[in-house]
Here is the input.
Amino acid sequence: MAVYTDITETDLKHFLAQYDVGELTSYKGIAEGVENTNFLLHTTKDPLILTLYEKRVEKSDLPFFLGLMQHLSERGLSCPLPLPRWDGELLGELSDRPAALISFLEGMWLRKPEAKHCREVGKALAGMHIAGEGFEIKRPNALSLEGWKVLWEKSAERADEVETGLEQEITAELAFLEAHWPKNLPAGVIHADLFQDNVFFLGDGLSGLIDFYFACNDLLAYDVSICLNAWCFEKDGSYNVTKGSALLEGYCSVRPLSAEERDALPVLSRGSALRFFLTRLYDWLTTPEGALVVKKDPLEYLRKLRFHRHISSVAEYAPAIEVAS
Ligand SMILES: Nc1ncnc2c1ncn2[C@@H]1O[C@H](COP(=O)(O)OP(=O)(O)O)[C@@H](O)[C@H]1O
Ligand SMILES: N[C@@H](CCOP(=O)(O)O)C(=O)O
Here is the structure.
């Protein structure tokens, strides 16, 4: 669940009076998600999402996230649009939390995506990378090499509780990634968390992307590697080459990957697998028993990381992929 902060109807009505959104008719907490508290609101106008930003989100980052959604939406990407208050501000406060109203996006996330959906995700990711051009505010990726080291320092001592030998393996992996991380690839605004639960579909058509709260400036191909990890493995841990091919072909049909980006995909995929392994491991070790949040399995990402270590060329992800020369 992710309703960390409760609200009263009276406070909510006061909050809504600052917006041109009609009268509140009903509201309910949304169980999905892990970072923030979300409510679905029905009003005499359109349905809305109310987000209360919880402690893991830096308040100083909110202008980046909200401004980015506006920027992408203005450039034709289907994503939630933050609503301005009467005074023009995008951010308010409710129950002592920073709070925003964003437009409700129609659609559902897919529990069992197929290759055709991976193709749509690839296209949408490339569309987002292009639409992100020209966005003025910058936000460095706090969860890249330096951030991974900090997370690892907090978990290393207890890592062998999760699997014997992990402390040594991950320390060596970090050293490898530090030595081999690509430096001169095209960079821009990336989503950085485009997992299944953040992509909505209506039937087989992709209706939009949500949850821009890890978005930042980083290598565009790193975002592709995140999607390869999130969309192209089966529940049994095996890589699905049909899905990988569809995702990469979809991406390249909108924004072709250069030869350098293509060659970097195995190392980038090791990095993105490590990133999700580390945040999940940290949560696994620190979330108290009985907390009302579903802990995600770090070992799923350890297995993906180990898979990528054996990849020597992008052809193993997608045999027929064509890249820009
Ligand atoms: N703009 C939106 N339109 C429709 N549903 C949304 C929207 N934003 C969030 N949701 C719903 O809230 C859930 C959690 O949102 P998300 O942004 O992923 O939260 P978190 O950042 O806490 O992980 C989503 O799975 C979805 O069901
Ligand atoms: N996608 C991450 C966790 C972040 O969850 P979200 O609900 O904010 O998308 C993971 O799977 O570890």
